[in-house]
Write a structure and sequence with these properties.
By secondary structure, the protein is α+β, with helices and mostly antiparallel strands. It has helices at residues 3-17, 20-61, 85-92, 131-135, 157-163, 198-201, 209-216, 236-249, 263-266, 268-306, 308-316, 321-357, 364-367, 378-396, 408-411, and strands at 65-69, 81-82, 97-111, 116-124, 137-140, 152-156, 170-177, 180-193, 204-208, 222-223, 225-230, 258-262. It is elongated, with a radius of gyration of 31 Å.
Amino acid sequence: MPRIRTEFFIARRISSRAGGRSNVMVRIATLTVAVGMAVMILALAIVIGFKREITSKLVGFGAHVRIVSLYSHDSFETEPIRIDSALMADLAALPRCSSVAPYALKGGMIKTPDAIQGVALKGLTADGDTTFLHRHLVRGRLPRIGGTRTKELLISDNVARLTGLDTGDRVEMLFVDTSRPVRRDRFKICGIYATGMDELDDAMTFTDIRNVQRLNGWDEEQISGYELMTTDFGRLDDFAQQVYETVFDHADQASDVLKVEDVVSLNPNTFDWLRAHNVNAAVIIVVMLLVAFLNMVSAMLIILLEKTSMIGMLKALGMRNSAIRTVFILRSFRIVATGMLWGNLIGLGLAVLQQATGLVRLNSTGYMLSHVPISLDWGWWCALNLGIPLVMLLLMGIPAQAVAAVKPEKTIRYQ
């Protein structure tokens, strides 16, 4: 019989006949591995979920990169620039550029008999990427853009609840400008969206860009800026640099002085906060591994003590220390495998439940989202399920070294 089959056979027999104190410790070790695995799965799913959800929503309300007037500030009242068709063509030709579209902003207030809500009115074009809004549409539809101008308005579910509005309702909006009297306009609610990011949901409404241009007193060639999307967010810095170089090349021909901003530079505190979550996840994984390892060591040492006479007998029959260590490492592998199986079932089950129901809610003021986000991906799940047993088995080689201290002449003297 090949040696590895012999060692596997002995390890299996030890597993099937374990009893007494060792059986209790084996159960504790298995439970520890299961709990640790479930916690690690949930920690990674939540951390990655936070990063993806918040990033996708910040990008969805804006873009990966935007180009605006150098004199514009971070507000809803922007300095206009003129549409440059040559610049847009060169931007669209950049590698990894998926879309480039003009947009316009105007600050205003939604007024109803019972409430007044301050919002930003964002004007969209037919060339803009509306995938984000379609994905989060609750009811109704997006505003019609292109063709005959319509005064349709897309509002959030939060704004709808605060003002008592719904699809099909007509609403009056007020626009205050220091250089002119208060302007009034009426819109028809065509749809309602909800992203769960309450801070932005409370502020953003969407309509045809021509409505915003008219309210700002601009002509059809004046806009707030351009929004660009890239196909590779991981290389955002490179893409933003290419956009900057393209804008710089057009500086001599353009009448406007422009600046380039990316979503990370516009939200530095948010992305620093998201990067801090990586440290939290790493600490959780290390702590769970350490707790599981200590319990596994305890179980392994108890099993070794109870099987001392068997170890002496195997040595007397000619089995090497390395082979006997392999027997107990294989025994440890069964404990780890059983714990990981239960841990995966518990962790994935809770993650899927939260993903489907949003059961665990959050304070959106502190966490930016209204519920705990979950992101399940085969990549990190496979890495976790391959890495954890490998690390555990390497560490279990440490207590298995105790096999070398067992002397056959002492352990089998009284057998």
